[in-house]
Design brief:
The chain is of the alpha/beta class and 210 residues long. 50% of the residues lie in helices and 13% in strands. The protein has a domain of 139 residues: Rossmann fold (3-Layer(aba) Sandwich).
Length: 210
């Protein structure tokens, strides 16, 4: 991927949270990192936070994270709330942040507002759903000439991870849309990353995302 030239004017996203959701291979991490670099907002992921606890916390929360990773499951909602509210409460998130992921289950989506409130970070949220066809996920990660081909990128493993993402997706989006201070937009992420980022940037800078 070519380095993107942001030009003279960097984007100002204000005091808010921007979260990227989408199937694996949709480019969430790349786009979220680009936006973090341009806006100056911290880049956070649920996965990195849980890995931090798994590696460094000897207590019950760290153990719960270690079990979760070994069994390839999701963390119980109350434990996730406790861990993520601690991360969101740190000083670097006071004026908002970029979240790669989140809203992975119905329970997590329902509890997200409480997580932010506990952290003192009940800010406006823009959720950007990067959508691509399932066959493109497989092409980008497993079957294509330039596929990522990580050690866990088998077709069966990817199918299992995609099934988890799409499970009750409509219900999760409904919950998001019912929050008065949240908004969600679906963006076609089937284009090159530069084009996708331009679409994301245009939406964030426009009145619909304010």
């Amino acid at each position: 991927m070519k380095e993107i030239d942001f030009g003279q004017e960097r984007i100002n996203i204000g005091k808010r949270i921007i979260s990227f959701i989408g199937p694996e291979g949709s480019g969430k991490t790349t786009i979220a990192n680009l936006l973090s670099s341009e806006s100056g907002k911290p880049y956070l992921t649920t996965g990195d936070t849980l890995r931090e606890y798994a590696a460094n916390d000897p207590g019950r929360l760290g153990e719960a994270c270690r079990v979760m990773f070994s069994e390839h499951t999701y963390l119980a909602g109350d434990l996730l709330l406790e861990i993520m509210s601690d991360r969101f409460s740190r000083e670097d998130t006071e004026n908002g942040f970029i979240l790669d992921g989140g809203f992975r289950t119905v329970e997590e989506t329902r509890e997200f507002k409480a997580t932010l409130e506990k952290a003192g970070r009940d800010l406006p949220i823009t959720i950007i759903y990067l959508n691509i066809p399932i066959e493109v996920c497989f092409e980008r990660l497993v079957t294509g000439k330039n596929a990522r081909k990580r050690s866990d990128d088998t077709e069966d493993a990817l199918k299992s991870r995609l099934d988890k993402f799409y499970n009750q997706l409509d219900e999760r989006l409904r919950i998001i849309r019912n929050h008065p201070n949240w908004n969600v937009v679906e963006i076609d992420a089937n284009d090159p990353v530069e084009s996708v980022y331009d679409k994301v940037r245009s939406y964030i800078a426009g009145p619909a995302a304010a």
